[in-house]
């Protein structure tokens, strides 16, 4: 009887004359022969040489019979909730926006609240207290809105204050920003570069005639040409800042993705950006638009699969799912992730900054421990579907916001993608990593 069994988290697919194997728990990528893959599938390793068995074990493609890998995933999941070394904080300098997008996730019901300079300094104090109270080695600050670049003064003040404090504490500081790109001027780009600017996400929803009907400035004008010009400035002035281009698809633009990709290629942008296609996300604020314009699941899957195939054919380093250095889970369900609204209120997720139901307290009054524990107790292992899933280590039960808006219960689990699409996304990314010999501990994400 063999001393080993194949890992339950081996994802195997044909590639050329052999097979690529990706272990969703250990993040190992291996290219194996038909004979070795047959041994993995049948659980019979007696025909393999001792050296091959040793390499399979070292790379976690086989494990000793007594190992319970689901228990390992559980341990990693619960440990990550409470013992992470990175504090992630998203700050909203303002609820205001210079656009009036018809599918806006946030809607137009929020007050025109702006964070004051006095409150922004209290935000810094609160974050510093969190750093001093934990064993953090890194602070990741993200700015969101509304449109965050309507308040660059707040962004610069918070970034400068926290970066200086992190330098004192020997903590790594990095900055991300999610912006519509309209206000990303040369002066702002140069200023953001001072703060270890890690990444920026900008949305483009199609060629100009399509994008400008969906990403509309409040004065009624289109935004495509402005954004493209600003992206070119970004690539020239901040080449080390990762550019993520997001395409939100629904019935109104799904057929125009190729046109946009051709424009990005002609403009010299596509080879310097990570491009992702995402369905319009349902929230309470956009449910009327969603009900009329959302794509049926099968059509949306087909569009995203076609996009992946185009990336594969053109050897673009694009994908819709990351391969990080370890199991990945929804940050909103961890103790190390916070969202701070313009009025100083605390939340766990960007998608829930509405009313008091999901408010966790404030930076002035403290954290409501009972509401916080509701999020920290979210447990995908209560779901039989999740427990048995090959991809559980990759999604940790999926997005809490998506689960809530589909089931009205944050404790329920909803697959982030269809299994067909998820398999295709991982297969594509593994091929890219393997072909370019990129180590999975590179921690790539998009």
Walk me through what this model shows.
39% of the residues lie in helices and 16% in strands. The protein is an alpha/beta fold. The chain has a ten-stranded mixed beta sheet. A three-stranded antiparallel beta sheet has the order 2-3-4. A hairpin with a 3-residue loop joins β14 and β15 (366-367). The protein is globular and about 70 Å long. Residues 441-446 have low confidence and may be disordered.
Q: What is the compact description of this entry?
A:
By secondary structure, the protein is an alpha/beta fold. 39% of the residues lie in helices and 16% in strands.
Q: Which characteristics define this entry?
A:
446 residues, Outer Surface Protein A, domain 3, TIM Barrel, 2 domains, ten-stranded mixed β-sheet, three-stranded antiparallel β-sheet
What topology does this entry show?
Layout: E1 4-6, E2 10-15, E3 18-23, E4 29-32, H1 34-42, H2 50-58, E5 62-64, H3 69-83, E6 86-91, H4 117-133, E7 138-143, H5 152-169, E8 172-178, H6 186-192, E9 197-203, H7 208-214, H8 224-237, E10 242-249, H9 257-266, E11 274-279, H10 287-293, H11 297-314, E12 337-340, E13 345-347, E14 361-362, E15 366-367, H12 369-376, H13 384-387, H14 392-395, H15 400-407, H16 419-436
Helix pairs in contact: 4-5, 11-16
